Amino acid sequence: MSNVHVMNHPLIQHKLTLIRDKNTGVKEFRELVEEVALLMAYEVYRDLPLKEIEVETPIGKAVCHAIAGKKLGIVPILRAGLGMVDGMTKLVPAAKVGHIGLYRDPETLEPVEYYCKLPSDIEERDLIVVDPMLATGGSASAAISFLKQRGAKNIKMVCLIAAPEGIARLQKDHNDVDIFAAAVDEKLNSHGYIVPGLGDAGDRLFGTK
């Protein structure tokens, strides 16, 4: 089964509280989502391989460590996933960014694909799929399936808030994909929204309704 990593760092939890608050405006909401994504990136990137290199300090030579050239790709699920991209790439600016556009059919709650643009060497990259909300898991599962169809082998899922139903869906469909979340909430309501959640992440990021 997929490993679920819930990040309870005080800074992440504090900022997530502000994100949840319905009175938080668009500008602050957007900044907070980016900040939490950056903080989560430390843990998501924990298993990057290192290599030894020798550098000359002002005092003498030192044997140090550097990231061993691992290829990374960040894949936001449009549109809300865009809010997490800058935070995830600030620490690894060389990572390439692909995009998958999916929307949830309001009747069936199943994902419908409308756009996809990915790095040409996707099969050589460790991919991180980002979306603030893992609700039903339908969109995330579909996005990961599409990446696997294109040759992706190592994929992680990163979200701010997950519902138990979404976690169960990913564990059923993609038990090789680790899930990283800042919180796991109570449940989904009858409309497929996470309770208590934070509302519609896309609308709150971009000021739409």
Tell me what the structure shows:
The chain has helices at 10-20, 26-44, 82-90, 138-149, 164-173, 201-206, and strands at 4-6, 50-56, 61-67, 72-78, 96-97, 99-104, 111-117, 126-130, 133-134, 154-162, 178-184, 187-188, 194-195. The protein has 209 residues and is α/β, with parallel strands linked by helices. Strands 1, 4, 5, 6, 7, 8, 9, 10 and 11 form a nine-stranded mixed β-sheet that branches. A two-stranded antiparallel ribbon has the order 2-3. The longest helix is centred in the N-terminal third of the chain and has 19 residues, at 26-44. The radius of gyration is 18 Å and the shape is globular.
Task: Provide a concise account of the structure shown.
The protein is of the alpha/beta class and 209 residues long. It has helices spanning 10-20, 26-44, 82-90, 138-149, 164-173, 201-206, and strands spanning 4-6, 50-56, 61-67, 72-78, 96-97, 99-104, 111-117, 126-130, 133-134, 154-162, 178-184, 187-188, 194-195. The chain is built from six helices and 13 strands.
